[in-house]
Recover the amino acids of this structure.
């Protein structure tokens, strides 16, 4: 970048600076077109569809998830050579995780309208659930020698509905490996069951939601 020029904003510099001056208008135009085509067009109906079935908060939460995943894909493709052939596999896996979480959120949100204690019960369960999910650690490196107990490892591996999806997402995104078939099948089944349970709970209490609220 030439020092005699005022430095453009980062969002403008990314599509503009790598190109010759005669090509920059085309690069910026394609960048803006892509942002609108992949962002502004599909996001309102998608967020609206999720909001209609759960809540506006859950619908809006898909935006930071998509932005985070897109950022990770770009960073991985640049920094981690081993993930360049598998990183795109994380997109359908992440979509399955979104469906899984949306189904759980729909069931919990619907039940909370009728049973107000669900909110406090969930708040108490989220903290231990977080530490039982191998996000900051690996089940192969449990402290205190717990990895030597196969029953404990299998329980943490398969009883937690978020652990197999997490492994399925982590393999192509960080390790450059194709997700294990067992993890993918678990994710698909869990997502379908979660969405079915959420829809069932919602249909059971939908006539009471307007009254309770």
């Amino acid at each position: 970048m030439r020092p005699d020029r005022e430095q453009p904003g980062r969002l403008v510099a990314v599509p503009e600076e790598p190109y010759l001056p005669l090509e920059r208008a085309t690069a910026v135009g394609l960048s803006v077109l892509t942002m609108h085509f992949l962002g502004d067009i599909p996001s309102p109906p998608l967020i609206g569809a999720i909001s209609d079935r759960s809540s506006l908060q859950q619908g809006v939460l898909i935006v930071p998830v998509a932005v985070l995943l897109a950022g990770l894909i770009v960073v991985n493709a640049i920094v981690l050579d081993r993930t360049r052939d598998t990183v795109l596999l994380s997109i359908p896996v992440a979509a399955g995780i979104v469906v899984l979480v949306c189904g759980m959120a729909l069931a919990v949100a619907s039940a909370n309208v009728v049973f107000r204690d669900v909110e406090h019960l969930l708040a108490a369960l989220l903290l231990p659930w977080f530490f039982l999910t191998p996000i900051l650690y690996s089940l192969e490196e449990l402290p205190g020698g717990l990895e030597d107990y196969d029953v404990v490892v299998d329980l943490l591996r398969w009883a937690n509905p978020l652990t197999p999806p997490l492994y399925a997402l982590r393999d192509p995104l960080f390790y450059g490996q194709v997700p294990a078939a067992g993890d993918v099948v678990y994710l698909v089944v869990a997502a379908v069951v979660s969405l079915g349970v959420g829809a069932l709970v919602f249909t059971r209490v939908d006539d009471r939601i307007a009254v309770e609220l």
Q: What stands out?
A: Residues 42-212 form one domain. The chain has a mean pLDDT of 80.
